[in-house]
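Go through this pair.

…
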Amino acid sequence: MADVNRGNRPLSPHMTIYRPQWTSMTSILTRITGNALIVGSILIIWWFIAAATGPEAYARANGVITSWFGDIVMFLSVWALWYHMAFGIRHLIWDSGHMLDVERSETYAQAAIIVATLLTIFTAVVL
């Protein structure tokens, strides 16, 4: 093996010059929201099972879902649902070969975050 002086070189030089991009950050957030939707779904399934089990189990599950913590989880789940749907549409657009250039893709990412937020507020206020 070659005699290499590794002490004077940075281990990850790309970390000092990397600039996060809208497309990469929204892709990561899409994966996070997908997993967060699983957690929200498990809470809702627990609520349904508790409703079928009996009044004591339902009261416990309903207490958690309607608490301040449950309200936050459900509100964020609604945002994650709208966000995940908006970026699923982005992937359908990309699969058709459209909007693959960086400028339009980043514009879509910014617009989709705004739309997901507005739709979440609309859903929470109206429904």
